[in-house]
Amino acid sequence: QVQLVESGGGLVQAGDSLTLSCVASGRSFRGDRMGWFRQAPGKERQFVAAIRWIGGLTFYANSVKERFTISRDDLKNTVYLQMNSLKPDDTGVYYCGTANRTTIPNVEKFFDYWGQGTQVTVSS
Q: pLDDT per residue over 9-41, tens digit each?
């Protein structure tokens, strides 16, 4: 079975950095697009960043460009999200998802599997 396990969340202050990890298992993800989404209290789940497993082409939401970096380690089947200059608006539950094809929009409904999420809280 496909499993995605996120880790690395926590409570930090504005301006701090944090790195999230997503370990994927259960099948080959070579043809997939891996993505990070976040959901703030009372709001819908929003796209943050994504990466094609093969080739490493990346995509970012405008709100996180130049601050966040998505990457993947093929040997470890792990996707990372490095977050710098964190703001209170970055607070939310961060989810890792996978889409089984690369030519899809970066929206929630096109992703097939999700992890349980990891909480990121940024204080002022």
A: 999 999 999 999 999 999 999 889 999 999 998
Phi, psi (deg, nearest 5) at residue 108: -55, -40
**In this structure, what token pair is assigned to residue 26?**
């259960």
Token couple for 12: 């930090």
Closest CA to 10 of 76, 89, 93, 80: 93
Asked whether 6 and 20 are in contact (CB, 8 A), the reply is yes
Helix (H, G, I), strand (E, B) or coil at 111: coil
Query: How far is 115 from 124, CA to CA, in rounded Å?
Result: 28
| CB 10, CB 22: distance < 8 Å | no
